[in-house]
Structure formats: C-alpha cells, structure tokens
Amino acid sequence: MKMPKDFSIDNFKTIHFVGIGGIGLSRLAKYFHHYGKKISGSDMEKSEITAELSELGIKLYFVHNATNVPTDADLLVYSEAIPEDNPERKEARNRKIEEMSQFDLLGKITQYHETIAIAGTNGKSTTTAMIGLILEKAGFDPTVFIGSKVGAWKGNLRIGKGNLFVIEADELNRQFLGLYPNAVVVTNIEMDHMDYYKDLNDVKSAFSEFIKKVSDQGKIIYNCDDSVSREVLEHIHHPNEISYGKDSEDVKLKKTQVIEKLQKFEVKFKGSKKTEEFELQVPGEFNVQNALAAITATKAYNVPMNVIFETLKKYRGIWRRFEVLGKVGTTTVVSDYAHHPSSIAVTVKAAREFYRDSKILLVFQPHQKKRTKLLLDDLVASLAQAEADHLIITEIFDVHGREQGEDGMKGIDFFEKVSKRIPNAEYQPNLKTAYEAVKNQIGSYDLVIVMGAGDIYKVANKMINNKYEI
User: Fold this and answer.
1) Any idea of the CA torsion for 338, 342, 347, 350, to the nearest 10 degrees?
2) Binding positions for ATP (predicted)?
C-alpha cells in the first residue's frame, strides 16, 4: 500500500527502530511496515510484542550494536528510554542518518490529519480504546495508536482509511509536545516520572504547553473532578472547553451503581432535560470516568448516542488493564498495569465490587528504583488501603535506560517498609520465585491480581499457561 500523499516524510524507505519492543515504538514499526517500508529494529529482550513483529517478517536484533543499522537506512527512530550514546544512535549520526523520537515521528504522521490526543497520568489507554472503538462503530474508520492492546484490533494499532487519528499521548519526557492535536482529552494530572519532572508544577507546565497547542477551532475535553486538571485549564481559557465529571455543567455524571458485575451510570448533558443511562462490564469508578471522557469526546464529534451506548456496553477491557486471563481451578487470575499510588487501592476496590466476598492475593511489582523511593509513603499507604488478604512484593522493575545513579532503593528495602504496615506480606526476589509462591498458594484464594507496569504480567500468563516462559 502507498502512504497517504500528504505524508511529509514519504521519502524515507528504510527505517530502523531502537527499542522496537516497547509498546510505543512497536506500533510505529507496524504502521510503516503496513505502508511498505523496509523495517528493522533492536531491543534488549524478547517479548510478546517482539514475537508479533517477527511474525510480520520484521528483522529484529536482541542486542544494541552499530552493525544492526541497515546499510541503506535513511531514518532511525528511538524510544525515549534509549540514550544518545547508544551505539546504534551514534552510528546513525556518524552516517548522517536522520534521527527522530517516536512522538516527533507521530507528530509528522498526524500533522495533516484531524487528531484526537488522549493525555493524563491515569486512564489514557482505556480512554483511547473506548474512543477508538466508538468512532470505528460510528463509521469514522480512524487510525488509532494506543499504549496497550485491543482485542478487536489484535494489538496496539488500528489502521483506518479515514482522516481521523486517535493517539494515546504520553507526557514522559514531554514527548507529547511532538504532536499537533485538534482535540485533547485530559483524564487527570498527577506527579509521576520523577526521573524527568522536578515537581508537580513542572508536570502542570508540560500539560499546559500541550493543551495550548490546540487552536481556537479545536476542542479541550477535561475531567473537572480532578483538581489539578481544573487548575491548569483555568489559566488557559480556551474557547471550546468541555468538562465532564460529577461537578461538570457540560457532561455531568449522576447516579452510579454496580449490579451483578455490571456498572450502570447516568449522564446529564448540558441543554438536555433528560438523563442518558450507560452500562459497563468492566469494574471500577475510574472506568466510569474513562467512559465519561469517551462519551464527551465522541459526542463532540456528533456520534449518535445509541452507538456510544452499544459500544461501551460491549467493551471488555484491554491488555493489562484489569485483564481477566482465566481461571486456575476456581481462582480467577487478573493482570493489571496499575503502578501509581492513586491506581493501586482503587483497582483492588474495583475488584471487590465485582468479586464480592472474595479472598484476594495481590502480587505487586514496584516500578523504577528512584520513583519507588520518591513515592514510598504513598505506595505503602495505597497498598495498605487495598487490604488484600495477602500481598507478595517482588524486586523493583528497572526500566532500561532510565535508571541512573544509586539514589533509588531495592525491592527488599521497599518490602521492609511495606511489612511494617502490612504484616500479611512476603517478598519474592524475582519472577520465578514469585510464580512459585503464587502457584503454591493459589488454591486458598478466589482472585489473584498480578499488578505492575513492568514484566510482572509474565507471572499471570504462566499461571494460565504453564508452558509460558518467564
């Protein structure tokens, strides 16, 4: 297939991706492969994602080496986790091959298209999936770049023929500033990515700069129940702001209830005398908020209400977002991405709403050493509030290229802090020992939640499929 005529870098024929196994870079590799580009890439380890890329016939290397860069490469794309002194990036500079970060490249792709960008500390992936699925059902035929996997799209990318692009916009390293959005959805704003942002004001500044990229003809959709988002928007004064939430005058969340693993909630729209009722088959008040964001965004694009309702009613979730993998005997196994303090307790609370009176085993993998140290008190408090019947803590996940210096902490140190608040906790130093611990105890619990943004999902996968390697 040919690339769209208005695509500004159509002259690039051979593209090499460094960090291709990441959820973000892999979707770009798939996109360009779809349009007939010659693709190669490198990553430090094999994964489900690299297996998907290999099946497409993409050449992969599992070591970073200058010789990986093809002789005819005319573009090198790198993940934000890849440092400047990476041998492949150095080779590109030596050979005068153009380098580009993934979001700068996404910006190049989308700048000539109507683009909806979904940003926020939590809820980005779910909201992106919901918006994309609704627009697909409504006939927009959108292209969607998501930081998770959607079953209906068989991965982290949907390629459509329409002019509308839906992008999950990551604030890490301010990378979302590479985009040119026509509409922005802000789910919430919290302190995160401590290896980059100095403080919450720094985060707010980044979001403010991002939102200001939307022209007066565009749309800003935000969660007014989130005080930080509200504060940021108060200083921008965009002419087309649309709020959603319990306190909103635009799209107001009314009554919510959980009945037999079904969430029902009512929404009142500005200018309408009646309320609309929606249903969700995924748990958690946070998912109601995500759905509310999707409702607000797609209604702004004049999607009929019945299409929104039916799509949300059929929504079953996405990869590692309270993903029910199956059962081991009578025990349900769930894989979840939660790793921020504000997400941990609410995820377990959501589980208790859908799985009432269940005994819960929580397996938690902290994310990044420095981040864990800086968020220590909040992480411990959130794990305590979760009130799991038993807690397993693993070694902290180290993100390649983002841990620098020794000013972080070790998993055993984190566990010692946790165990002072949570006596029913244990420490497992790696994935294999964590898996064995879960395997030995699983019969005593109704629900196992394997939680974290790193590679802890492999433990959950192996519980369901013993042949899965960790």
Assistant:
1) -160
2) 120-126
3-class state of residue 31 by DSSP? helix
Q: Binding site annotation covers 65?
A: no
Whether residue 57 is annotated as binding a ligand: the answer is no
Is the pLDDT assigned to residue 1 strictly greater than 50?
no
Q: What pLDDT digit, counting tens, does each position of 429-469 carry? A: 999 999 999 999 999 999 999 999 999 999 999 999 988 88
Given CA atoms 128, 134, 135, 141 in this order, what sign does their dihedral have? positive
Q: What six digits make up the tokens of 233? A: 């928007």
Residue 202, Cβ neighbours under 10 Å: how many? 13
The single residue listed with the structure tokens 């990476």 is: 86
Give the CATH number of domain 14-100: 3.40.50.720
Distance, first Cα to last Cα, the chain: 37
Give the C-alpha distances (Å, rounded to integers) separating 432 from 284, 368, 400, 429, 449.
Answer: 30, 19, 20, 8, 17
Copy the structure tokens of residue 403: 């841990």
- Which one of 3.90.190.20, 3.40.47.10, 3.40.50.300, 3.50.50.60 gives the CATH number of domain 323-464? 3.90.190.20
pTM equals: 0.91
Residue with token string 């803590």: 393
Distances 258 to 84, 124, 162, 284 between C-alpha atoms, Å: 50, 23, 37, 9
Are 312 and 279 in contact by the 8 Å Cβ rule? The answer is: yes
| Residue 394 among known ligand-binding residues | no
Percent of the chain with pLDDT strictly greater than 70: 96
Strands 183-186 and 219-223: parallel
Contacts of 303 (CB under 8 A, 6+ apart): 134, 135, 138
The verdict on whether residue 215 carries a ligand-binding annotation is no
Query: Is position 122 annotated in a ligand binding site?
Result: yes
Q: What is the CATH number of domain 111-314?
A: 3.40.1190.10
Q: Is 370 annotated as ligand-binding?
A: no
CB 195, CB 174: distance < 8 Å: no
